[in-house]
Amino acid sequence: MLGLSGRGYRVLAVGYPVAWTQKEWAESFARFMAAKDIRSAHLYGVSLGGHLALVFARYFPERVLSLALTNALCDTSQFAENAPMPVAAYAYMPSFVLREFILEGFPKDAAFPVGVGEAIEFQMMQLDTLTQAELAHV
């Protein structure tokens, strides 16, 4: 944080308030941003903070310039809802089919900023290290 603030960036580390729903939390963070006169921001979150950054981006995408996440938790129910077949069937599918389902979500033939293409390539190579059981639960 000191490195960024030393370069002229406004950096805030925020604890999360008590909220009973994800939407309530996102709305409270939007109010915090408004109180600090922040229209939009780059968000970085670790673990639960990463999950909360994703939640905020879901409810207020226009206020998120970018997301940087480390060990973020995510709600995967939306993926199950949009799956090409019932998720329970994944346990019985061969690895190569599961890999294809995952790879369909990766961008193809696009120009990426420096480092992004390499990161995508690395993720794709890591798929080859996963077992069928691990792929079925991705």
From TrEMBL:
This is Maspardin. It is found in: Cytoplasm. InterPro entries: AB_hydrolase_1, AB_hydrolase_fold, Maspardin. Its main location: cytoplasm. One of its GO terms (cellular component) is cytoplasm. Pfam families: Abhydrolase_1. Keywords: Cytoplasm. It comes from Hondaea fermentalgiana. The keyword Cytoplasm applies. Residues 24-92 form the AB hydrolase-1 domain.
